[in-house]
Design brief:
The protein has about 240 residues and is an alpha+beta fold. The protein is built from 4 helices and 15 strands. The radius of gyration is 19 Å and the shape is globular. The chain starts with 8 loop residues before the first strand and ends with a strand. About 30% of the residues are buried.
Length: about 240
């Protein structure tokens, strides 16, 4: 098997609450490891890649300092600090997420879907971190920070459940209004597109990890609304802790 043939089973796509899994090392690279399966989300869609710990059968551990999708091969790579003392190809390992960090990403990513439902304009950019998230909207209208905060928290408190499902490329083409992002198109390489649906609130293609219901997001606050051009408004949201 060559490294270009390796496809990692993405367990996080169907269950974002898995915090660890057993896996087999399929390739060892200078920057990290490729495994046959993973619960680690790779950087993409504005959401950072997961970090955590790799545990060998001997009990030795190594830090996973990031997770990426290699642009050339498409492989998911678990980034490590050192090239030495890593498992060999074929070795069984266990990987464990930094769950607190990931869960905050899930909460804020889900919050951005709530924000999308309240600001009905195309999205020109966005990003998520542990403590804050932002979306840029293609709009010239003004937004009131206090009012938007109140509406956002009211929507979150209604506890809308989330579900995911898959559609074909052709089905997405027949429903172009589902795509809110103007700068990045949903990935089409597999022939199917993953939809994230918050009941009665938001439905759009998204590959990120999300909470099971909106109440899990918690109380948030619109920290800042910035004018980033004649037709661009940036909304920054933080946890109100």
């Amino acid at each position: 098997m060559t490294t270009t043939q390796i496809i990692t089973e993405e367990l996080f796509r169907d269950d974002a609450y898995l915090t660890s899994c057993d896996a087999t090392v399929m390739a060892v690279r200078e920057d990290g490891l490729v495994l046959d399966r993973t619960v680690f989300y790779p950087t993409g869609g504005g959401q950072p890649g997961d970090i955590g710990t790799l545990v060998r059968s001997s009990g030795d551990t190594a830090a996973i300092i990031g997770t990426i999708s290699d642009r050339e091969s498409g492989m998911i790579v678990h980034l490590t600090e050192a090239a030495s003392d890593l498992p060999e190809r074929g070795e069984p390992v266990t990987i464990e997420l930094d769950w607190q960090r990931r869960h905050r990403h899930m909460r804020l990513h889900s919050c951005m879907h709530m924000l999308c439902s309240l600001v009905p304009y195309g999205v020109t950019g966005g990003s998520i971190s542990e403590d804050r998230a932002r979306l840029d909207f293609d709009m010239s209208d003004t937004l009131d920070k206090v009012e938007l905060t109140e509406r956002l928290n009211s929507l979150i408190a209604e506890d809308h459940p989330m579900e995911t499902r898959w559609i074909t490329n052709e089905e997405l083409d027949a429903q172009p209004d589902l795509v809110r992002t103007m700068s990045v198109a949903p990935p089409r390489g597999s022939g199917k597109i993953r939809l994230v649906h918050f009941e009665n609130v938001d439905l759009q293609p998204c590959g990120g990890t999300h909470v099971a219901s909106t109440a899990e997001i918690g109380v948030v606050r619109v920290q800042k609304i910035e004018k980033k051009g004649k037709h661009n408004r940036r909304v920054i949201v933080v946890f109100d802790e």
